[in-house]
Amino acid sequence: MQGKKNIIAGLFIMAAALAAVFIGCHKKSADEVGHHHHAEGMATAAVPKPTKKFATDENLRARMTAILNTMKAMHEAGAKVNLSDTGGKIETTVQDIFKKCKLEPAADAAIHPILGDLLKGAELFKKGNEKEGHDKIHNALLRYEDFFDHPNWSHQK
């Protein structure tokens, strides 16, 4: 019974930590001050592709480029790549995006599922699952390209 309580407590702590990471990522309008909506469907809600790509800020562009470059370096390294280190590097970069990004609410809602998938892919890397982790991250980067205006972004399909 004690083991079951520890598992439940661990899951609760993990959920609380993830919720804390997601909080604070979007720019609040004057009528939103004091209200926060990140808990509503965090990284699971499907967001339709916008008719016009969302604007990006320098912080988001720099960090997404860093993730793309990490994936390119991994591809070039081949069998010599340290999956755990790569997963940790991507995870740290995504956490930094959550801390520093300042997006409008619609763009914020669109970036959360993408960042969530990047974190899932990073976790798969850390567990040694290269193929599924790569697929998850690759698809997230393609969605980023579809949703966000990032000059000179080039991720091959």
Folded structure, characterized:
The protein has about 160 residues and is mainly alpha-helical. It has a single domain, classed as Four Helix Bundle (Hemerythrin (Met), subunit A). Helix content is about 65%, strand content about 0%. It has five helices and no strands. It has helices spanning about 1-20, 60-75, 85-100, 105-125, 130-145. The protein is globular and about 40 Å long. It starts with a helix and ends in a 10-residue tail after the last helix. The model is unreliable at about 5-25 and about 25-45 (pLDDT under 50).
Compute the gyration radius: what is it? 17 Å
Annotation, overall tally of beta strands: 0
The average pLDDT value, as a whole number, equals 78
* Spatial shape: globular
Beta strand % = under 5%
CATH class: Mainly Alpha
CATH-level-2 architecture: Up-down Bundle
Report on the biggest sheet. Answer: none
